[in-house]
Amino acid sequence: MNKLESLRTHLLATVAEFKHNPDRLLIFIDNGKVRCTNAASLSFEYSFDLQIILTEFAGHPDSVMLPLLGWLSIHQTELLESLDKVNTGIQFEADILDKDKVDLSISLALTERVVVATDDQGNITVTHPGEPQRVAGYLDPNWKPGAQGNTSEFMVLDGK
Q1: Exposed e or buried b for every residue in 45-58, given b needs 16+ CB within 10 A?
Q2: Is 129 helix (H, G, I), strand (E, B) or coil?
Q3: Beta bridge pairs of residue 103
Q4: CA 36 to CA 145: how far, in whole Å?
Q5: Rounded Cα–Cα distance for residues 81 and 154 (Å)
Q6: Which residues pair with 25 in a beta bridge?
Q7: What's this model's pTM, rounded to 2 decimal places?
Q8: Of 123, 59, 53, whose CA–CA distance to 92 is shortest?
Q9: Is 3 exposed, middle or buried (0-12, 13-18, 19+ CB in 10 A)?
Q10: Separation of CA 83 from chain center
Q11: What share of the chain is helix, strand, coil (3-state, %, to 5)?
Q12: Does the pLDDT at position 95 exceed 90?
């Protein structure tokens, strides 16, 4: 599963405390499931709870949460967009060790698609496509503010 390693690499690169103590970042998978609908191919989806454990963490929780939310905004956007998933998709617990350190556990409900196909030579291919990326309407070059003379309404042109 690619998301596990992607998130580990991201946190190691963006959380200052891990630059000197990378062994304090532990990642596990719980409640793993495979969903396959018996369609024309054997494409499927992994569904799992990713457990991130930060041992003897002395930093501020924001120093972990902000990079984590940034990663989720690209790799698992529905955890930030879907009202159902916003309430349960990101959870945490902390064991207070002393006034400066905690063991922090973060749980993320993740999915990862796996596309199984056949190439032109008849070989089976397996790919893990990235998540669909949403682009804010105002970044669309065809977007015009104040469409139809009303500056309080926005309209995206060309059916987008």
Answers
A1: ebebbbebbbbebe
A2: coil
A3: 95
A4: 43
A5: 21
A6: 54
A7: 0.78
A8: 53
A9: buried
A10: 16
A11: 30, 35, 30
A12: yes
What's the one-letter identity of residue 3?
A: K
Q: Which long-range contacts (CB under 8 A, 24 or more apart) does 60-63 make?
A: 61/92, 61/94, 61/104, 63/15, 63/16, 63/17
pLDDT of residue 160: 38
Rounded CA-CA distance 12/10 in Å is: 6
User: How many C-beta atoms lie closer than 10 Å to residue 159's C-beta?
Assistant: 5
pLDDT one-digit tens code per residue, 36-58: 988 888 899 999 999 999 999 99
CA 78 to centroid of chain Cα atoms = 8
Token pair, residue 47, equals 């569904």
Q: How many CB atoms lie within 10 A of CB 83?
A: 6
In this structure, what token pair is assigned to residue 39? Answer: 């369609």
Distance, CA of 143 to CA of 61 (rounded, Å): 38
Residues 6+ apart with CB under 8 A from 21: none
- Sequence-distant (6+) residues with CB within 8 A of 33 are 46, 47, 48
Computed on alpha carbons and rounded to an integer, the radius of gyration of the chain in Å comes to: 20
